[in-house]
């Protein structure tokens, strides 16, 4: 290739390509988009969309659900048929008033008071996992701690039997990284387009949730599945499709996202040993450390909205029906908002707040208090044991443009 | 005392605030939000939680 054939600048990275996340979030690509083209016209699978990369614009879109709908084109990058949207629609892919109804049903399990009640169980699970990891000295952090802690907590809340925990973990993994699964896995006969993440694993989760729901209908327990099955809002109940999607979202969101926060958070402490020392020396920094882990880990990379009318965003004309993709993976590292954004700094002020939970819009993460509790308990137990982690092998990342997942992180555990 | 104001143009009646401070916020029989406009200082934490979790960020709190 001669010099003339070389493009003048490196070809722009396609931030929707899962390969762009092979080594983590492509920060340089997002920095360039924020600087040069904050509302960028891009294409995904041949269809145009707007990529929103600045913090301020992401907040604007998030807090204006009337203009930027979650229901109209749902919240995935892909465009779906009406039939597929009807089959796959969850609390995440809805607007008021349906969203209000679904949110009210799920909310009672995740209030501050309710979440405080989960602390003891969370601490017990975290303690057992950490003690086993310390005894083993060398473990895969993901299998040893990041995966079992959140799933152990959420199955307790939902009422899923402990024996099925590993199955729930496997299914949520396969939702985001299950390209190798055959379409008929788990006896699936539903067209993939009708399943969340186009994944037969979603079929298995639906089936599992339906069976468990049926059991709780006949034999109610003090758990969230029973609450959802029995719940009535304004005299009506969840439809079977709504219930199945709610169950799937709760298993996925209560497990995959916090796991991702833990894995990336511990990796950040490994890469920044000074910050680990600082937390051991000054445990009162824990609130800031939690927010910094959540910012830095950015478990969910983006969500999609659809414009309900012609509008203008940051000086750019957006037409009704346009697809607008908000990149948390970029806004959390916007240097207009966060000083030295690529630094992992547990003394960073809590406000302006990271946007990993959805920037306080109507779809702000229902489980945010639970995620914070799990991170708090884990960090407290690490501090209390005076231990540190060292990397003991290569990090394997999840192939996904949607979650910032880590599939494997071999670590050694040492006294601090 | 703490003054509470809810922007009813923003409020979508999600009722999330009710779970955080049930003595201050409530949904009536029609599902519409009702609230107490002034509470004592000892309710500060609960009311702040309610404002924090509001999906529409419609609740403003001021010390009076």
In short, what is this structure?
Chain A has helices at residues 27-36, 55-62, 82-88, 98-106, 112-116, 119-136, 141-146, 148-158, 165-176, 200-218, 224-230, 240-253, 256-271, 273-281, 286-297, 328-331, 368-385, and strands at residues 39-44, 47-52, 68-69, 138-140, 302-307, 311-313, 316-318, 323-327, 387-391, 396-397, 406-408, 410-415. Chain A has 416 residues and is of the alpha+beta class. Chain A has a single domain, classed as Cytochrome p450, CATH 1.10.630.
Quickly give the CATH architecture of chain A.
Answer: Orthogonal Bundle
Number of helical elements of chain B: 2
Strand neighbour order, sheet with most strands of chain A: 1-2-8-5-3
How many distinct folded domains of chain B? Answer: 1
Radius of gyration of chain B: 11 Å
Which fold name is given in CATH as the topology of chain B?
Answer: Alpha-Beta Plaits
- CATH fold node name of chain A: Cytochrome p450
Could you walk me through the main structural features you see in this protein, from its secondary elements to its overall organization?
The complex is a heterodimer of chains A (416) and B (64). The longest helix of chain A has 19 residues, at 200-218. In chain A, 49% of the residues are buried. Chain A starts with 26 loop residues before the first helix and ends with a strand. Chain A has a single domain (18-415), classed as Cytochrome P450 (Cytochrome p450, Orthogonal Bundle), CATH 1.10.630. In chain A, the strands form four sheets. In chain A, strands 1-2-8-5-3 form a five-stranded mixed sheet. A three-stranded antiparallel sheet of chain A has the order 4-12-9. By secondary structure, chain A is of the alpha+beta class. Chain A has 17 helices and twelve strands. Chain B has 64 residues and is α+β, with helices and mostly antiparallel strands. Chain B has a single domain (2-63), classed as Alpha-Beta Plaits (2-Layer Sandwich). Chain B has helices at residues 16-20, 44-53, and strands at residues 2-6, 25-27, 33-35, 38-39, 59-63. Chain B has a three-stranded antiparallel sheet with strand order 4-1-5, with helices on one face. In chain B, strands 2-3 form a two-stranded antiparallel ribbon. Chain B is globular and about 30 Å long. Chain B starts with a strand and ends with a strand. The A-B interface holds A 63, 96-97, 100, 103-104, 107-108, 111-113, 234, 360-364 and B 12-16, 19-20, 31, 49, 53, 55-57.
């Amino acid at each position: 290739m001669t010099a003339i054939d070389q493009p003048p600048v490196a070809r722009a990275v396609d931030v929707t390509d899962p390969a762009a996340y092979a080594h983590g979030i492509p920060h340089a690509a997002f920095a360039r988009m924020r600087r040069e083209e904050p509302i960028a016209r891009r294409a995904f699978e041949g269809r145009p969309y707007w990529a929103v990369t600045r913090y301020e614009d992401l907040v604007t879109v998030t807090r204006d659900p009337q203009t930027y709908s979650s229901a109209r084109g749902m919240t995935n990058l892909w465009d779906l048929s009406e039939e597929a949207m009807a089959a796959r629609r969850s609390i995440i892919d809805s607007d008021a008033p349906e969203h209000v109804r679904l949110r009210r049903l799920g909310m009672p399990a995740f209030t501050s008071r309710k979440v405080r009640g989960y602390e003891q169980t969370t601490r017990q699970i975290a303690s057992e996992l950490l003690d086993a990891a310390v005894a083993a000295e060398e473990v895969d952090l993901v299998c040893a701690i990041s995966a079992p802690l959140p799933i152990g907590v959420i199955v307790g809340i939902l009422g899923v039997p402990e024996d099925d925990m590993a199955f729930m973990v496997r299914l949520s993994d396969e939702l985001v990284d299950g390209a190798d699964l055959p379409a008929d896995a788990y006896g699936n006969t539903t067209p993939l387009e009708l399943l969340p993440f186009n994944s037969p694993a979603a079929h298995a989760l639906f089936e599992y949730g339906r069976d468990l729901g049926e059991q709780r209908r006949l034999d109610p327990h003090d758990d969230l599945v029973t609450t959802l099955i029995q719940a009535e809002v304004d005299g009506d109940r969840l439809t079977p499709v709504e219930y199945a999607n709610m169950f799937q979202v709760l298993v996925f969101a209560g497990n995959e996202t916090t796991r991702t926060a833990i894995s990336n958070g511990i990796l950040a402490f490994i890469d920044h040993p000074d910050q680990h020392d600082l937390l051991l020396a000054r445990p009162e920094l824990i609130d800031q450390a939690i927010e910094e882990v959540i910012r830095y880990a950015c478990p969910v990379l983006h969500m999609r909205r659809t414009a309900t009318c012609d509008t203008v965003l940051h000086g750019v004309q957006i037409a009704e029906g346009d697809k607008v993709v908000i990149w948390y993976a970029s806004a959390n590292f916007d240097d207009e908002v966060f000083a030295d954004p690529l630094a992992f700094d547990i003394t960073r002020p809590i406000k302006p707040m990271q946007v990993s939970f959805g920037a306080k819009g109507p779809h702000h993460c229902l489980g945010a208090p639970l995620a914070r509790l799990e991170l708090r308990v884990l960090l407290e137990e690490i501090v209390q044991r005076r231990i540190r982690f060292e990397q003991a092998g290569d990090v394997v990342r999840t192939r996904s443009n949607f979650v910032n997942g880590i599939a494997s992180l071999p670590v050694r555990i040492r006294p601090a | 005392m703490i003054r509470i104001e809810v922007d009813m143009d923003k409020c979508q009646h999600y009722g999330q605030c009710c779970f955080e401070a049930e003595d201050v916020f409530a949904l009536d029989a029609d599902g519409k939000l009702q609230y107490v406009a002034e509470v004592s200082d000892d309710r500060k934490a609960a009311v702040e939680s309610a404002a924090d979790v509001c999906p529409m960020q419609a609740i403003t709190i001021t010390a009076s």
